[in-house]
Sequence to fold (765 residues):
Amino acid sequence: MSALPSLTRPTRPDRPLKPARLAKAAVKATPAAANAANAAAASFAALTARLDYMSPQDVDNVRSAYRFADEAHLGQLRNSGEPYITHPIAVALQCALWKLDAQALMAALLHDAIEDCGVTKVELIERFGAPVAELVDGLTKLEKLEFNTREENQAESFRKMLLAMARDVRVILIKLADRSHNMQTLGNAPREKWARISRETLDIYVPIAHRLGLNTTYRELQDLSFQHLYPWRYQVLTKALLKARSRRRDVIKRVQAEVEAEFATQQITAEISGREKTLYSIYRKMDDKHLSFAQVTDIYGFRVIVGTLNACYTALGVMHQQYKPLPGKFKDYIAIPKINGYQSLHTTLVGPFGTNIEFQMRTEAMHVVAESGVAAHWLYKANEPDSDASARLGTQWLQSLLDIQHETRDAAEFWDHVKIDLFPDEVYVFTPKSQIMAMPRGATIVDFAYAIHSDIGHRAVAAKINGEQVPLRSPLSNGDVIEIITSTVASPNPGWLGFVQTGKARSKIRHHLKTMALAESQELGEKMLTQALRSEGIEKLPDDTKAERVIWEKILRFSGNKSRADLLTDVGLGKRIASMVAKRIVALLAEKGEKPDALLLSRERFTAHESVSQGALVLDGSEGASVQYASCCKPIPGDKVLGYLGRGEGLVVHTDDCSVAKRLQHRDTERFIAVDWADEPMRLFETTLLVTVTNGKGVLARVAAALAVAEADITHVNMGQERAQDATELKFGIAVRDRAHLATVLRNVKRTSSVLRVQRARPGN
Fold:
């Protein structure tokens, strides 16, 4: 097809021409333009022929969307030289094959209007209504926003699309139809783009199609991506498959004839058709298991479609009588469907000449769901308006997207969580009440707890599998009955992030830890700022009342924070220095006539630590994540300590003789504050003992017993990597109450036979 004179350079498939060139194209009408218009009209006629399931009014609405899109894309060409409008029509045609409603088809026709043609969302709302505009907006990438990297842009765009999809699954169906047509025409795009687009399709759209049960689209996108990502490998495998197909034709025909004859004898009405693995799945199997093409034995199979559910099991029995089943290769996805709604019986039989052949048995309704997944919802509505058989399809995963979004604000983190869930290989487990739950293979007790409810996950302290107590990190297996034991005072452990497998569990744990850390940092910041004010002679923080509101507004303008809570959190995290904020508050109070209390000022300054900028903060061990006790020196109550406010890390407590603290103090004096121990700390504190012993039988047991008698909890034991000598050094991590308790422990261990020396480890030991 010849192009217009002003359009000699073909455009990318997903990019329009500039508005100025569109204007030229509209003026310079030629016979070629008329031919292009006729081609587009002919393709739209093919679409309308597929709309027999719609009412005349709906067809008119689709036609009006086509006219609007045709005008918006006027003069734009794809790389193939075809009018751009042929692409939206092809997308809408795929949606019509799924029997999607009029709104979805209108959105399919308009899906590039906002992104490529300068049409606004408001204009679409006025012309076609809010539902259509929302669908189009969900399909529109975020290229008008500024992002630091292409990856950040892509992550944010996918998050937008996936969240729109979770609210309305039609978004992803239209997007998959769009991607399918773009992949079908990728050969017209510049060669350097093939790899990027194909890899993106394999990594994102293929798993989504699989997750939602769109088997036909899943297989097509896989093979098209493989064809353009590895063209040479694709050609070699295609030739090998054609040869194998001709070699095995006789076997396949014989098996089909024998099965059909046996079904006829048993009076089972069945439709039997061949099924072939995709080239990409063959390639992946060869690559993953290091097989040659000849070693891949399950390339071919049969699909048996019968009339009723009972007929599926009857057909299975007939085939098991005719051919021997392969042990361990039977799966009942009818009794326990896959998470995307897929149902079938799978069995692998040993056919003639020892050939392994897979059979899948299902009803017609199951076949529709197997091929179309969530799109079967509209197919059901078209054929059985009152049926809700597909209402459950994919809803569990779609809802989990919204749950993850609620906990995760960062686009890249959100996408990481979603990718975990895009490759499901399920195991099926049971609750104590016999409810079946599908979990990804490798999922743990904690994943299961969060799948039931967030509160169950947050409060989990123990679990039982099949009545036996197990650790929370235990992986799940098919058929396990899981019981979660909870406690009202429990909370998520950061260590869980090291073994959880599902995006939902990971996002819930991270969100809870962040929320808890911010709350603790705010509380710490309030303590620190109050202490800094006392050092300046002010008894307490200004109240958050109307009378003091002006002071807080001025402080927030000074600090750049949005709220009082944000400021206190920043002080607790070390992003703001408490003494500087305190001095500003004192100056503002002075403007109101409030003077520092001379008695408080002298008392605080007399007792303040010499090397720090404000009075001492009292620690009792209950501060949570906002206060960390340095691992280099491991301070315990009774040690002389000082606190370092790391930027964004909260308060880190060191002993005053710690070499790390001394280096920091030399460089960052203003970030140190005085800290002191409470009279009665709330918990135990960890420290390290170095015990030198003479090597012999039972030495470790005797030292451990001595520690137990002294009521010290052993948290870690390290015996080093060297071979045992006459004298060996053991390193014990222990938890003690304070220095007095530690002294008791040291005396107890020192009196133990075979112990030569015992001392507390210090930085550098």
